[in-house]
């Protein structure tokens, strides 16, 4: 009953996020619908303050419910029968249905935290207008779609794979310059990724003996993930589902199909390509479980992976007809500057430490630190690939570590990129402190990035507040009543069972 209540609180939070998004999110520019309905007041003055209260109350409810749900699931995972002080965990199907309940309101919310969805539409429209989105920016096709996207990307080229660009074009061929219909259509065509994640995550977790319910909690109930990929929305919603499905198929022994699906993920976003080389070790480990591996096996498996990947990626490249121009678009990530990657953080520290002695411009320092970061990343990826060659478990762990290395060593990173790691990490039973770290980092990213696409991680007060709230959320996962609020605190942090017995009262540590 307690876990059901947590799930209801999270669903309510999602509704509040949806309602508040229209006042504090990223609605289309020059959009007159709210004015026509007589409710434009929610976007300014006291009306915007009310919208902000609704939005952040919703975020709080979702994080609150997520932490409580996590405490319940992790406690139940240690005592699958429920024990004396922990209710049994809800089944996987129950959680899958509740996840859809959390996601549903976000499907009709105004875009939040980013204007990328308008860039998707503008890139599809410029493609449909006869331009090459890998060579020509959306500004070549002015209109309401370009007006609504972030100006910084108006002249940049698309970094997405051929399948994604074809998908964007299909959407804009149908919706034209209608921005709202375009946003809803983008969400609908990305939504299969969420269903694929719901299918693949439990299977990936179960294959390695991890809890399917905990996997769903970690990667999908995570408010940072759900709000960004659904309400954002972002291509990662589709990519993470296809990536997880490909991995689930590969570890299940359906190597050719799994490799084809992973190549499909690469055609969505090139980052998924990090996973493909590790398929070699998984495939060979399955052969090794039946008989000794021969050099002929190694050559044959390697050739099959290369052939399947090239065939799938080449197929979509030929169908869409844009070639491999996406390579040039990858460099535009350098435009994003935040200290969430090591190279950018080091550049900030260098300029700060040098400030009393010499005035260093950040940009030249960034060029050096990012070049070093890219070189280190290449070495780390190769080292991980070789060191994680022993069996399928270490190979999948290698994929997770490789994705994390990309996140921390690439020129820039954004909150929704962390889906690349989380969707693979579900395969393992992680230490409690790791789950707490994910909770803290997710909460922090929900705060320092703002729903209207603003950022506060260069504002000291807001930054300290974000760290404090993130730390509280993380601590709440591992300790009941961290603020020592007594009985209310034990209830709020999920430290009591349905009968009101404090966790740990029967001798079990919460």
TrEMBL record:
The chain crosses the membrane at residues 49-69, 179-202, 237-253, 260-284, 304-327, 339-362, 368-386, 398-418, 430-449, 461-478. The keyword Transferase applies. One of its GO terms (molecular function) is glycosyltransferase activity. Keywords: Glycosyltransferase, Membrane, Transferase, Transmembrane, Transmembrane helix. It is found in: Membrane. It comes from the Bacteria. Pfam families: MptA_B_family. It is a multi-pass membrane protein. Belongs to the MptA/B family. NCBIfam families: crt_membr (TIGR03459), MptB (NF038066). This is Alpha-(1->6)-mannopyranosyltransferase A. The lineage of its organism: Bacteria, Bacillati, Actinomycetota, Actinomycetes, Mycobacteriales.
């Amino acid at each position: 009953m307690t876990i059901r209540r947590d799930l209801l609180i999270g669903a309510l939070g999602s509704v509040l996020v949806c309602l508040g998004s229209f006042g504090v999110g990223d609605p289309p520019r020059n959009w007159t619908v709210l004015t026509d309905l007589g409710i434009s007041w929610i976007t300014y003055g006291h009306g915007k303050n009310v919208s902000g209260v609704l939005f952040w109350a919703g975020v709080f409810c979702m994080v609150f419910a997520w932490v409580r749900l996590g405490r319940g699931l992790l406690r139940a995972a240690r005592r699958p029968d429920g024990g004396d002080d922990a209710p049994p965990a809800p089944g996987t199907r129950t959680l899958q249905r509740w996840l859809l309940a959390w996601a549903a309101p976000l499907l009709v919310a105004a875009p939040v935290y980013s204007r990328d969805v308008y860039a998707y539409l503008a890139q599809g429209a410029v493609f449909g207008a006869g331009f090459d989105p890998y060579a020509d920016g959306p500004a070549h096709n002015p209109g309401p779609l370009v007006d609504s996207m972030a100006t910084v990307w108006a002249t940049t080229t698309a970094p997405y794979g051929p399948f994604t660009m074809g998908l964007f074009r299909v959407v804009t061929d149908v919706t034209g310059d209608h921005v709202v219909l375009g946003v809803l259509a983008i969400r609908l065509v990305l939504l299969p990724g969420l269903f694929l994640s719901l299918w693949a995550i439990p299977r990936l977790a179960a294959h390695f003996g991890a809890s399917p319910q905990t996997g769903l909690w970690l990667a999908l109930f995570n408010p940072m993930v759900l709000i960004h990929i659904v309400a954002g929305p972002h291509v990662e919603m589709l990519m993470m589902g296809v990536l997880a499905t490909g991995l689930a198929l590969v570890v299940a022994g359906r190597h050719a199909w799994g490799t084809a699906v992973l190549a499909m993920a690469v055609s969505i976003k090139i980052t998924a390509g990090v996973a493909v080389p590790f398929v070699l070790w998984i495939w060979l480990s399955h052969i090794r479980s039946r008989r000794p591996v021969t050099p002929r096996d190694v050559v044959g498996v390697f050739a099959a992976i290369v052939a399947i990947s090239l065939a799938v990626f080449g197929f979509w490249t030929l169908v869409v007809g844009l070639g491999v121009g996406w390579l040039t678009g990858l460099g535009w990530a350098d435009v994003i500057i935040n200290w969430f990657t090591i190279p950018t953080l080091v550049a900030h520290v260098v300029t700060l430490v040098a400030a009393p002695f010499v005035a260093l411009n950040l940009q030249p320092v960034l060029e050096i630190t990012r070049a070093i970061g890219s070189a280190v990343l290449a070495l780390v990826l190769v080292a991980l690939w070789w060191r994680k060659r022993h069996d399928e478990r270490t190979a999948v762990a290698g994929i997770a570590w490789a994705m994390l290395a990309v996140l921390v060593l690439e020129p820039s990173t954004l909150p929704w990129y962390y889906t690349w790691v989380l969707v693979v990490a579900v395969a393992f039973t992680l230490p409690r402190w790791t789950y707490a770290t994910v909770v803290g980092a997710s909460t922090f990213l929900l705060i320092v990035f703002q729903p209207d696409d603003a950022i506060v991680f260069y504002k000291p007060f807001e930054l300290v507040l974000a760290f404090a709230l993130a730390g509280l959320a993380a601590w709440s996962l591992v300790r009941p009543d961290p603020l020592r609020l007594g009985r209310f605190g034990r209830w709020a942090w999920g430290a009591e069972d349905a009968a009101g017995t404090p966790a740990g009262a029967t001798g079990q540590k919460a």
